[in-house]
Design brief:
With about 120 residues, the protein is mostly beta strands. About 0% of the residues lie in helices and about 55% in strands. A hairpin with a 6-residue loop joins strand 4 and strand 5.
Length: about 120
């Protein structure tokens, strides 16, 4: 059974940094993408960063130049380095891994990020 566990969230002042981690356990094969999403209160869940199996990255316009997605294959972990954080970045952050056999993806439980002004 596949499980994703996010960590690294917390409270930070505007301009600060956080690094989120998403550790995957269980058997995951044929990964297509590893993504980070976020959902603020009363808003829809939106993708903020994507890393494809071929190493291509994509970012939401709102985080370009500030966030970096990366992966440690040996540890089955995907990271989101978040710099120059803004109050608008406040949300619950979720990781998702999409595979050939699970196109809806496996989701973590989320980690809260709160940025104070």
């Amino acid at each position: 059974q596949v499980q994703l566990v996010e960590s690294g969230g917390g409270l930070v002042q505007a301009g600060g940094s956080l690094r989120l981690s998403c550790a995957a356990s269980g058997s995951i094969f044929s990964i297509l993408t590893m993504d980070w999403y976020r959902q603020a209160p009363g808003k829809q869940r939106d993708m903020v960063a994507r890393l494809t199996s071929t190493g291509i990255t994509n970012y939401a316009d709102s985080v370009k130049g500030r966030f970096t997605i990366s992966r440690d294959s040996a540890k089955n972990t995907v990271y989101l380095q978040m710099n120059s954080l803004k109050p608008d970045d406040t949300a619950v952050y979720y990781c998702r891994i999409m595979t050939m056999s699970n196109r809806q993806g496996y989701w973590g439980q989320g980690t809260q990020v709160t940025v104070s002004s």
